[in-house]
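In response to a reviewer's request, we include the raw inputs and outputs for one of the modeled complexes. The three entities were modeled together in a single run.
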Amino acid sequence: MEKGYSSNSDENLIQAADYVEKPESQLKEMWETLKQNKAAVVGLFIIGLLALIALVVWGSELLGKQILPYDPNYSDMTQSFIWPNAEHWFGTDQLGRDMFSRILDGTKISLFVGVAAVAISLSIGVMLGAIAGYRGGRTDALIMRIMDMMLAIPSILLAIAFMAALGKGLDKAVIAIGLVSIPEYARIVRGSILSVKENDYVQAAKVIGNRDSRIIFKHILPNIISLIVVRATLGISTAVLDTAALGFLGLGVQPPYAEWGDMLGRARGFIFTAPYTLIFPGIAITIIVLAFNLLGDGLRDALDPKSRIK
Amino acid sequence: MNEVLMKVQDLSKHFTMETDWFGKPVSILKAVDEVSFSIAKGEAFGLVGESGCGKTTLGKILVNLYSPTNGKIFFAGKELTVLNEKQRRSYCKDIQMIFQDPYASLNPRMTVGDIIAEPIIINHLLPMSEVEERVIYLLNCVGLARHQRNRYPHEFSGGQRQRVGIARALAVEPKLIVCDEPVSALDVSIQAQVLNLLDDLKAEFGLTYLFIAHGLNVVKHISDRVGVMYLGKLVEIAPKKELYANPLHPYTQALLSAIPIINPEKKKERIILKGDVPSPINPPAGCRFCSRCFKEFEPCQLNSPELKEVSPNHWVACHLFE
Amino acid sequence: MLLEVKNLRTEFKLKRGTVRAVDDISFSIDKGEILAIVGESGSGKSVTSLSIMGLLQNPGRIVGGEILFNSQNLLKMSQKELQKIRGNKISMIFQEPMTSLNPVWRIKDQIMENIMTHMKISKKDALARTIEMLDTVGIPSPAERAYDYPHQMSGGMRQRVMTAMALSCEPELLIADEPTTALDVTIQAQILELLYRMREKFHMAVLLITHDLGVVSEAADRVIVMYCGKIVEEADVKSLFAQPLHPYTVGLMRSIPQIDDDSDQRLYMIKGMVPNPLHMPPGCPFSDRCDSCLERCTKDMPELQEIDGHKVRCFLYDKASEGELSTK
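The model returned the following structure tokens for the whole complex.
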């Protein structure tokens, strides 16, 4: 327990002040704190906007209707390298495709890759970390040494290696990026399980006859879920960046799909003649990464019980 | 004495603190070292000792949170120490525990009703339709109200949380409850409430207690017999009146004299022990207490005294009585 | 009069309201006296000591009163002036000897730092004084143990080191906030004996904050009982224990299992629990738990009144209540 200058009875005093209040659900309380963090609200707003764009674009594609000003994959060589103007807000690229439509179209790919990759690394990472942390001993040593090995290789290099084994393509990029960040989740979960495990309520759960799996899912994970949420939010931004990097290297999403990293990569030859073909995808990547980072930092503050008292 | 409910024979728990390069232990913490005692049905057996004496470890072995290094545990005639993990779990519901820290022993993400219902559900004690009724009954038993069922632990005070912990232990209808310092984290005015509650429940449900505490006055109030532990060893066992009126082991004498008496007029002769409790890692071969003992003589350094019955039901491990 | 606290009020501003942790309390300590403040969690006893030391942290704030130390008001002093007094003239030992020492510094460095900030002496003399202090508080082979780190010492040893540090500048007032709560009984006896001895040796006053009536009865000269931020009773230790007046004090004393009591009777219980500091009952804060609660107790706040040097805040001892008492 942390003591020091604040002595026992003060804590009790503040707790005593707390205990008759109406129960608030954890989500509601989180939202209340999050609302006060301006940066997080901005981040959340941008993410909401991007998600809305992605949904609209995706929905209209399914319905076969065109909602974007131009078909993002339609090339017309006669229209190539038009500088931004009233007709083509972001100009056109080397193949004459409308950049504005392509950037909007790319939103859905980036978001999808970010979320899907995190879902993969999260589910596997949390499971491995939970087993390692709860079991301890040899299981722990084995799992964590493998994780250490994965962490020893730069993640983008590892992703490239996975891509080399799996082949090119969007689905494979998602898997590669997902696999690469497993160790981060495993480590965080293991660490917090080690500390939560020592709590008396976990021991109490064992005494009343719980099985290990139920103890992990019912008594331990709900108490570290906030940490995982924060990490996952920040993880999405990393995944988006990794996809862009793979795209830039030509290993990710294959043409003609509009993916921001791929757009950057293909435009790099025209940096002096048509800089806007690099600038707009670059800005798009920056915005999405920034938004998730802002939200992640805000969540971390919102979920930290110490900051909540103030 | 009544029939024996739990019997512990030469029970030891050693923790390996350090190993050498080949995994061979080089320093061993003997938290519990060859402890033997028995608890009769319906009895409250008190276990006192200072921090680090192994009393909590002992309690945790009995509820299967630790597995013993050596020794045997018999419960209602069955030897528990030969069972495998699955068979052992079926005895869980007979031996329950109340924890010291009411702030740490309840899952903050569960309502108190769910906390109390959980042991009933996972042990399939009642059909689901009757669980709720039972939870309310248990809440009432420990002095909480029906409307508090859906509240979270942080909405309760320390004493109320401890009541929830007691209700959880009662939920599986145990025969023995290990009470690990159940009142030491509570305020004085609340301690009496919880102690009385434990007394009432014992009578109502025919419970047997192993009551672990460092406060000798609290142990005296609730127990029938008391065991004194020092550095992993039981040094004295006696019925409470006998122990408090006629303590034999020098450590028990010092412990009793150290308790402040609530009467400034009555200044008593105080034995102030020298030094601190030595480390339980690689303890000396002789009597564990000899470094602080005020009656130490030659044999104390050489070998460890055995627990011997010096008068009916009064056992002591000291060379002075050999 | 060494320390005089006059009408001290300390509040905690929380989101949901304001908690009056210390509500208009006054007391004084003479030179060489041991005054104990006893109370349960939330009684405001620790907040009182932190207020005196100027160590209140947000959201705590002193909103009124005076704290006179040698007739100087501590509340009117600048941080710099306070720094000179704190650790020098007034020092403090805490409940948790584990966290009150800096784990990355050697024992001697921590004590020497304190000595050298307040006294103008050379490093060599400071070290000599450190070892002397460690010897005084009963640390065996102090010259060697001075070079230990805190984690190499046991809890009792650390509390001794804390005491040595607190006493190193020969303070006139020592505030001991639950000095023995984290310690075992045999160690507690050692530390109490040490406090007593130090008081004799340095003739300092001690403000002992504790929840343990046993410790109070062993160590104190005079006692203040606090409940919900208010002083409910004040008396010298003998008359308090011989004849406690306030129903709360009486209840506390009766609810502790006595070591020399051989009966198997049920313990006396104070019913209910400490009220929520945000929703104090009107009238006496103890009224809803009190067995002898009168009608006016739930309406008005009784004043602290003196009966033969024994102060108590209760209507049972008020002349105006006699009518109601006799009808009861």
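As requested, we also summarize the result in words. The first helix of chain B runs from residue 55 to 62. The mean pLDDT of chain B is 89.
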